Amino acid sequence: MPSKPKIVLRTLFTRFVFSSGIAATIWRLFWRDRVAVMLYHDPSPQTLDAHLTYLKTVCDIVPFSEVNTPGRGRRRAAITLDDGHARNAELLPVFIKHNVRPTIFICSSIVTHPRTHWWMHPGASQAGVERLKRMSNEERLGELRSTGFRQDAAAAESTASGLSAEQIQAMRPYIDFESHTRFHPILTRCDDAECKEELVGSKREIEQMLGGNCQHFAYPNGDYGPREIAILKAGGYRTARTCDLGWNNHKSDPYRLKAFDIQDDSTVEWFAAQLTGITLYLRYLRQGGGLAGRKPQL
């Protein structure tokens, strides 16, 4: 939970952007009939329920497959979640209640297996997750092995962090499952063979798992480049969602779809403020992402 001073600052900021008309102006100029893609990871059912209740008052909520389609004269939003965390299964009643069909981008070699997302292993915390992200994929895996972690090894059932096969089957009628690589490496830190296997191999595994086409992708950590896009195109993916800030329509590059990275524990008021894009834009700008609102790349 954020500290009390941070909560106060967030409250004051939210009141300012809405009372001043800044939020309304941004939505009128940039959202209009475009699609804002919400990016979550592991929110609680209570938080997501509150967010969706609010979101439905300001826009229509559509499936991710409609992000790249022409507008209908109203603001739209799509709900996505990254990684395939086991607790995402607890969100199913919320999605059913609101008649919302989200997309969960899953790590195909972690879900349905007794495995742990690499950054959730104690060894990753000790080594420094952000530091590990900046290593080559081979170096990162080597350092994690020295702490006792192997990405393809079975973990204790109590530490398995991905959705189980039973959970995915129960959620399938209401939720779309798409690709987020096999093991969630930083793709721009992979060599060509590693990158291709993570992208093409994940598509293959998901199609075997679900018995249908896997057509959409989300870049782990939001890192991508021309090589990743070329492999996705050649591999048969239709779209790819980035962590870059912005709205989408039928003219958007389907392999550079933009998103709003929502903090999982946001109050409704702070969620509304994040929908203006101001908070994320300032964070990216401060971290060196430039004026275009692109997530800083590793």
TrEMBL record:
GO terms for cellular component: extracellular region. InterPro entries: Glyco_hydro/deAcase_b/a-brl, NODB_dom, Polysacch_Deacetylase. The chain crosses the membrane at residues 12-31. It comes from the Bacteria. It holds the Pfam family Polysacc_deac_1. GO terms for biological process: carbohydrate metabolic process. It is found in: Secreted. Residues 75-298 form the NodB homology domain. One of its GO terms (molecular function) is hydrolase activity, acting on carbon-nitrogen (but not peptide) bonds. Its main location: secreted. Keywords: Membrane, Signal, Transmembrane, Transmembrane helix. This is Polysaccharide deacetylase. It comes from Caballeronia arationis. The lineage of its organism: Bacteria, Pseudomonadati, Pseudomonadota, Betaproteobacteria, Burkholderiales.
